[in-house]
């Protein structure tokens, strides 16, 4: 590949991007490496392998690179599906590096030795006013995206409370888990009553802020007569006593059903 | 005429044609009173007028985002804020695209800006969770691929989708390499595809017309396609397949503009792109085969020759590949598409024969869905009228100038076909078929209308009138198309999450799905209403059935238990039944959000017995309740 600087750079970039995506921490950092590896480099290499240097101008070359990268991703999943190990980070990285490397190799062989890249005019830097306008547009778009991901207060939504009851750890468990999740818009006082069969087991009074969860874990003695025991949780709101707000029911499996 | 100059560099041919076009239509440039009389160079002459237009696009996007934030805050903002944002974003781009001064490079940058800005309008509506019904299905597929390391995993709601794994396979690359969610990876893949769509269309139109100006206007017209703003921007397989479809058409146009030897360079990109479409989306692969076959006939019509550059071999290749995939891998596509197409034909026949009333336009399915306001309907109808009015002028001009070009003939046919699909909108069950076909056919319409030459109309007293009229018309077509293509009440976001007391609370369906994700093992199966089941798929990452196959819909809606219901649930290994009294939960586009005070749609509830009947099932537990939503564990006993 001597003399083909662009191909050497692309090949090296593919390896660096693959290593960066595989080894570095933080999603955003990995994305900086994974995005070019997935969306540009394989297509660039295939395009370079298919076309003579003077066949395509830069915008067309980039378009073909982008579309062929997308096509490589769409077809690459199919290839990896039938490879040992299937679709995993390492297999994707290897595939994309292999496609890029193969493309660069073919391109280097097809290009005449010492062929110079097509002359392209360097884009001039925008002047200060233009740069300020461009940055303003970018800032506005960024603000729009940040705002869209921001949760805002909503006075007209109707809040509610979740109540659930589940055996804590499968069939052999002696634990029952009762949870209360508040999706109310303000702090609400609750009264939680849990019964095992017909016997009141526990009663909790507590307050939950919006978005908060309270989980009550109870260890009980499972039934020894081979029958499951019903566990009922009843939730009342403290200032609305006498009116059942939520009720759920699950079953505590008998002890003799454990494997 | 397309260049026949064998072996000549493609770009030189285009540039020459562009220069010729500019020279031809510049007789009065600089005339007194002319809007574009020679002026001093702009300070940012290197990049044209891009900077202020970028600023306007950013500001327009921010206005759209503010309108969505106000809607999420349940402050019922005027829709005019949103549409003002759209117009602030688009009109400066349209106006500049109609000018004669902009360079091809600037026009290319403008169409990219247009495509990405309008895509961002969709992104700011939904971030950071998918809320379009198909998106949740595809996000589930992507999660399944990453979790199981293989394609073709089961999808309980749209079983055909895993058989076309192109999009999810591509998304899985970014997901596995970065650890991102399907949402993050999905919007990047679809965004990249959207960029490719705009650039490929620009080069396609540019190559066929020989004019970058016509190409830019054509792409701007295409943005008025009914599905461009929302439906076509969602995380769904067609959003990846359509850009590759346009790229392949562009490849044929480029190939035609070169010599035979140089044209061979396009073989690999065309074959790779076609293969990618075949594994990504059924309808797009069939549309590609039809378009290429039509193009082959157009070549024959013009040149009376089946030899090079007639693309009939590629049409056959596409048809064989698509058929092979259909028969060998995706045979369930028959069962998926056949009822849709069958019902469409039946509806057309019934409507045409008067046996069934025509479909009322601009009306939702339920009585609680707010109707589209009169003004919005007017804009939508005006947009179609503008397209229809301009069509004869465009057809005439294309026929006179480009009839020797096979692509131009193909585009003329497609333009006429688009208006045929509008008729399908009057037949209830054919609406969707017409809507889906219009995305492909609009390509031809956009090209034909871009050739009308309205931008060159320069009355002596008001030389700016042609450009301003065209800019205004493009604005109407963009807004009208978006209104026609998406329900009026869904243009703005609804609250899925809200902040309260410094923390975040979630809508009841979303909280239920997140609860299931955290508390129920992954291998357990759910059955629910359409909206809840989709949220259980993503972000819940649980297998959830809904709808008619199996008949979950009747199980959930009937007020009593029938003999067949429990066996059916057991047969499908369904352990958890999610009931929801809100009728809205059967709506795949509106059922995900918070209940709002005073909302008629939210107040419509199923009878209590439809939910409480499941307590009669022996051994069933009522393990979760959040008011209207309840989860029954059918095997809580064990």
Largest sheet of chain A: 4 strands, antiparallel
| Helical/strand content category of chain A | alpha+beta
Helicity level of chain A, as a percent range?
40-55%
Largest beta-sheet details of chain B: 5 strands, mixed
State the largest interface.
A-B, 105 and 120 residues
Mean pLDDT of chain B: 89
Strands of the largest sheet of chain B, in order across it?
A: 4-3-5-7-6
Structurally, the number of domains of chain A stands at: 2
List the SSEs and their pairings:
The complex is a heterodimer of chains A (259) and B (638).
Chain A lengths: L4 H19 L3 H13 L1 H10 L7 H24 L7 H22 L17 H21 L12 E7 L7 E8 L5 E9 L2 E10 L4 E7 L9 E9 L8 E7 L7
Antiparallel strand pairs in A: 1-2, 2-5, 3-4, 3-6, 6-7
Chain B lengths: L9 H15 L25 H23 L6 H19 L6 H23 L6 H16 L17 H13 L3 H28 L2 H11 L14 H20 L3 H4 L3 H12 L3 H22 L8 H17 L3 H21 L21 H29 L3 H19 L6 H20 L14 H21 L11 E4 L2 E4 L1 H12 L5 E3 L2 H8 L5 E3 L6 H6 L7 H7 L2 E7 L19 H4 L5 H4 L8 E5 L3 E5 L5
Parallel strand pairs in B: 3-4, 3-5
Antiparallel strand pairs in B: 1-2, 5-7, 6-7
Short description:
The complex is a heterodimer of chains A (259) and B (638). By secondary structure, chain A is α+β, with helices and mostly antiparallel strands.
Outline the structure in words.
Chain A folds into two domains: 5-114 and 127-148; 161-252, Immunoglobulins (Immunoglobulin-like). Chain A is an alpha+beta fold and 259 residues long. Chain A is built from six helices and seven strands. Chain A is 42% helix and 22% strand. In chain A, the strands form two sheets. Chain A has a four-stranded antiparallel sheet with strand order 4-3-6-7, with no helix packed on it. By secondary structure, chain B is mostly helical. Chain B is built from 24 helices and seven strands. Chain B is globular and about 80 Å long. The chains are: A alpha+beta (259), B mainly alpha (638). Strand 1 (161-167) of chain A pairs antiparallel with strand 6 of chain B.
